[in-house]
Here is the input.
Amino acid sequence: METRRRTVVVGISGVSNGGKTTLASRLEKDIPNSYNISQDTYFVEEEDVLIDEKTGYERWDDLTAMNMDEMMKDVNDWITNPQKFCPEIPSDQSKHPVHVLIIEGILIFNYRPLLPLFDLKYFLTLPFEEAKRRRSQRVYIPPDPPGMFDEYVWRMYLENKKELENEMKVDMVYLDGTKNPDENYNKIKEDLLTLINSAEKS
Here is the structure.
């Protein structure tokens, strides 16, 4: 209980290219005793990705395309011993330092075993045209086939969002990805520091 009470877990999810990675990286840099885990690092090999029956595209925007068991193991390892993930921070920095785990990815809230661990949950949104424009400017390996965003990626975003809202009824703070990135960053940072201060006093 002492370890769990002295940790804070923040989730940043939402639309592809909404700014999740930028926010998570910035928070990790600025918040003491913090560590960032990105869902993108747990994709399976391309040959193991299933094919979408409706469109014929590879189902990258699906939990089956990610090794969630491995991700969950890494998250639990952090919760068990967060100090191990921040070796540059002296263990005697304070009597009871608060450690922060930042988890980002398009489907982190859709993975039910992970959901109860979050203390703060944020979901980035974008309108269709802006999301498509940003996606077209990114280089993916493998690259997106023509039509993939319109026919598959956006549909999966809407389906996964609907699952969170209607089926799982996840309580999330929505962030507008078209806003100045500083606004979303300051919102998360303010909430996070408030929670850290509360934990430090407990």
User: Anything to note?
Assistant: The chain is about 40% helix and 15% strand. The domain at 2-201 is CATH 3.40.50.300 (Rossmann fold).
